[in-house]
Design a protein that fits this description.
The complex is a heterodimer.
Chain A: H1 7-23, H2 26-32, H3 44-56, H4 75-88, H5 96-109, H6 112-117, H7 119-123, E1 129-132, E2 148-152, E3 155-166, E4 173-179, E5 190-196, E6 202-207, E7 216-227, E8 231-232, H8 238-274, E9 276-277, E10 280-281, H9 286-314, H10 323-345, H11 363-371, H12 381-392
Parallel strand pairs in A: 1-4
Antiparallel strand pairs in A: 2-3, 3-7, 4-5, 5-8, 6-7, 9-10
Helix pairs in contact in A: 1-4, 4-8, 5-8, 8-9, 8-10, 9-10, 10-11, 10-12
Chain B: H1 7-23, H2 26-34, H3 41-49, H4 68-80, H5 87-101, H6 104-116, E1 121-124, E2 140-144, E3 147-158, E4 165-171, E5 196-202, E6 208-213, E7 222-232, E8 237-238, H7 245-280, E9 282-283, E10 286-287, H8 292-321, H9 326-352, H10 363-374, H11 380-390
Parallel strand pairs in B: 1-4
Antiparallel strand pairs in B: 2-3, 3-7, 4-5, 5-8, 6-7, 9-10
Helix pairs in contact in B: 1-4, 4-7, 5-6, 5-7, 7-8, 7-9, 7-10, 8-9, 9-10, 9-11
Classes of the chains: A alpha+beta, B alpha+beta.
């Protein structure tokens, strides 16, 4: 057991740190001081530029092979990078679905041509990706999806609808799961496609969330042509490919989530110190101290449970269903954190953006509302518990 | 970075598992907990032969010179078996206190005997006030000639009735003015950490009486130790008079980490028992583990268990490395694991249903151990407050 960095890792950390200190946009750090940091529509352009800058400095795709635009480093460097990003309170990565999911899946399952074509442009943010999994009638029961892809000549024709598709309005590409064999058992007739979002017949309709933002969308396919060459991982093999994506999602987010929780906690502690309770800073109230300390402990626990998972990865083991536990923990912790932020504000928690009385311009109210999605997006907490119960503990399926 | 165990540690785990499964199965635990000593001479001898009583003591004193990350492996296995008896008190309390605070002569005289299993030791620090801080230490040690006279009562003393020597924390003075800028200046302008002294009191010392107390967790034996006009020579004092709190706090921190590891092992075992049962127990025509009401609870238990291990391993590493955030690591671990083991052992009973509430089933051994451990060395609330202080809230 050893948490120390090697000299090479130390110098990498210093390199990241000094680069961030020099290049971090100043006003951003103010915006990041409070609340969580889900990319919001009004900052997409800014985030695109920021990711490009990170890419040019060599800080994107650290663990991806050099041949495909990455740097061929280990998860250790990735973790160091993420930690420095947290400490500097740097902006989030806009193309996160590409970096966290599509890229690793293409690297794992793609043809040489696909591997040379897509990943590098994900890193540079030249091409933004979204995820076409959920449908109006297929959420947790994803394998029941109904969007069809029918073979016509050397291409497929897609018809159907996806929903809850984040950043589809910005996306150039979609990871699409569609049914290619309607007669097969439901898990076996699905194919994973790389779909060009600029194809004729793709219609994106923003959906207003309960936060008031249009962060996610409905996506309609009306006879959309996809070349056969855009199948990833083989015909009717989409379920296996798609599950790999999800595994990487939970793993990649694992690094990021720890960081995001730490950023949010720092913001919360700062809020508590500025908030008066019975004439003194709220941090002097015993009840508040208990709750803040528990948040602090849970954030650290989350970090070390992640470190154990990374140790397994560094030993060459693949990310497994344990990642579900990490996602679940983050969700519970983050929602509790946002609730605590409301509790600290008391009656002021009712005031949102636009009021001169709103605490921190109402940013906490937004992140509080947004946090309700955490236990639904990327697999509901109930589904994560099924995965843990069945695939880690070996309990029988219901 | 490497947050895993090495081959020697893996081997220690498998050896310990095998030994304890053979020597300390449930029937044995039940026999041991029914007796006043919680141990048989034969089993104690076998434990010592494994080298475990000397695991963390230096080679020169007959030990193996290993660290807390190694110890954690062993403690997890002991917790898994709810091992009764004086291992914890001898090694982690009495023995460790002698290692941390003893003079060379005291170490030479006791540590080799503790390492070999020949002598048992414990630590008497808490009093009826149940205060965990230095302020709780009020037992008077008055200077008399070159020696001291001790008067007062110690409570919650592990295995004092079978110990060959007891390390007693006493007050030799009421303390000097606290250092300027101290975080929590004590009332009266005095620093309670100053003036605490540690003494070695051998079994049978005139004036010392030990009473065994009935405990909820019968696998843990707790005592009251009364000292009435106990006269000790200068050689009984450990280190400098008045400066015993620092080593005592180090001992308690380390013992806390070891206790957390024991709790992790117990919680892991409860999870395994429960999952096993949920696979075979049928209700409405199918295994109860197929119902989400059961499955989701089991998933929550897994998260509690895995998180408990993560923070405990980190705290053990922090002890071995002597990093500045060591105390913070200890308190984070104890706060987390105290709640987690209680939740897990409670859920274990719930998911077993009626059979889980019987004396015959082993679950209650874990449930009671969890509750006792929760309040040993500070519960979650106490440690959360310490975390709040250490991170400057």
């Amino acid at each position: 057991m050893d948490f120390a960095l090697t000299p090479e890792q130390t110098s990498f950390r210093d390199e990241v740190r000094s680069w961030l200190a020099k290049n971090l946009p100043k006003d951003w750090s103010n915006r990041m001081r409070v609340g969580s940091d889900v990319p919001r529509p009004e900052v997409y352009d800014f985030l695109r530029t920021w990711q490009r800058k990170m890419y040019e400095a060599g800080f994107m795709g650290l663990t991806w092979p050099k041949d495909y635009g990455g740097r061929g480093l280990t998860f250790m460097e990735e973790m160091i990078l993420q930690e420095q990003i947290a400490l500097a309170k740097a902006p989030p990565v806009l193309n996160i679905l590409a970096i966290g999911m599509a890229g690793p899946t293409i690297i794992a399952y793609g043809t040489e041509e696909q591997k040379r074509r897509y990943p590098a442009k994900m890193l540079s943010c030249e091409e933004i990706w979204c995820q076409g999994y959920s449908e109006p009638n297929s959420g947790s029961d994803l394998a029941s999806l109904q969007t069809r892809a029918e073979k016509v000549g050397d291409h497929y024709v897609v018809n159907g609808q996806k929903v809850w598709t984040s950043i589809a309005q910005q996306a150039d590409w979609m990871m699409l799961l569609a049914r290619t064999d309607g007669t097969a058992e439901k898990h076996k007739g699905i194919t994973y496609f790389l779909l060009d979002m600029h194809s004729p017949g793709v219609a994106v309709k923003p959906l207003k969330q309960l936060t008031g933002d249009d962060e996610f969308n409905e996506v309609y396919f009306d006879n959309v042509k996809v070349p056969e060459a855009n199948i990833l991982g083989g015909l009717n093999n989409g379920w296996a490919v798609g599950m790999t994506t999800l595994m990487y999602e939970r793993l990649a987010l694992g690094f990021g989530l720890q960081v995001r929780l730490r950023i949010a906690l720092d913001g919360l502690v700062d809020l508590a110190k500025r908030t008066k309770k019975n004439g003194a800073p709220a941090t002097q109230d015993p009840n508040v101290r208990q709750k803040l300390a528990q948040m602090w402990i849970d954030t650290e626990v989350f970090k070390y449970t992640g470190a154990r998972a990374i140790t397994k990865l560094l030993k060459g083991e693949l990310p497994g269903p344990e990642a579900s536990a990490g996602k679940m923990m983050w969700v519970e912790g983050h929602q509790r954190l946002q609730e605590l932020a409301m509790e600290l504000q008391g009656p002021y928690s009712q005031l949102g953006r636009g009021s001169r009385w709103a605490v921190d311009s109402g940013v906490w109210q937004y992140s509080y509302l947004r946090s309700r999605a955490n236990s639904i997006e990327g697999g509901t907490t109930e589904i994560q518990k099924n995965i843990i119960g069945e695939r880690v503990l070996g309990l029988p399926k219901g | 970075m490497n947050f895993g165990f090495n081959e020697e540690q893996d081997l220690l785990r498998s050896t310990a598992r095998k030994f304890l499964d053979n020597e300390c199965a449930s029937e044995t635990v039940r026999k041991l907990m029914d007796g006043p000593e919680g141990m048989t001479p034969d089993l104690w001898k076998k434990i010592a032969e494994q080298g475990w009583t000397g695991l963390i003591f230096p080679d020169e004193h007959g030990g193996m010179g290993l660290g807390f990350v190694d110890l954690v492996v062993l403690m997890e296995e002991m917790g898994r078996s709810v091992l009764p008896g004086p291992f914890f008190s001898t090694v982690l309390l009495g023995g460790l206190a002698i290692r941390e605070a003893g003079t060379d002569t005291q170490k030479k005289s006791w540590l080799p005997r503790i390492s070999s299993g020949e002598a048992r030791a414990t630590l008497a620090w808490m009093e009826p006030s149940a205060e965990l801080g230095a302020r709780g230490i009020t037992l008077q040690a008055a200077a008399k000639g070159t020696g001291f006279t001790l008067d007062g009562t110690k409570l919650f003393v592990h295995d004092a009735h079978t110990a060959d020597v007891i390390v007693v924390a006493a007050r030799t003075s009421s303390g000097q003015n606290p250092p300027a800028g101290g975080q929590n200046p004590p009332a009266g302008g005095q620093d309670p950490e100053d003036g605490v002294s540690l003494f070695l009191v051998p079994k049978g010392t005139p004036g010392m009486s030990v009473t065994l107390l009935p405990t909820m967790d019968q696998t843990r034996k707790l005592c009251e130790v009364e000292l009435k006009n106990v006269v000790l020579g200068a050689e009984a004092l450990m280190g400098q008079a008045g400066s015993g709190w620092v080593p005592l706090a180090r001992v308690i921190d380390r013992a806390t980490v070891a206790l957390c590891a024991e709790m992790c092992g117990g919680a892991q075992k409860v999870l395994e028992m429960t999952v096993e049962y949920a696979k075979i127990r049928q209700a409405f025509g199918r295994p109860i583990g197929s119902y989400q009401g059961v499955k989701h609870k089991a998933a929550d238990m897994l998260v509690d268990v895995e998180n408990s291990k993560s923070i405990t391993y980190y705290a053990a590493w922090a002890m071995d490395e002597g990093v500045p955030e060591g105390q913070l690591a200890v308190s984070m671990a104890k706060a987390y694991v105290s709640d987690a083991y209680r939740r897990v052992s409670g859920a274990g009973i719930q998911l077993h249903g009626g059979i889980g509430f019987t004396w015959e089933h082993d679950l209650h051994l874990y449930f009671k151990r969890a509750k006792g451990s929760e309040f040993t060395f500070g519960d979650a609330t106490w440690h959360r407050e310490r975390v709040a202080q250490l991170v400057n809230l």
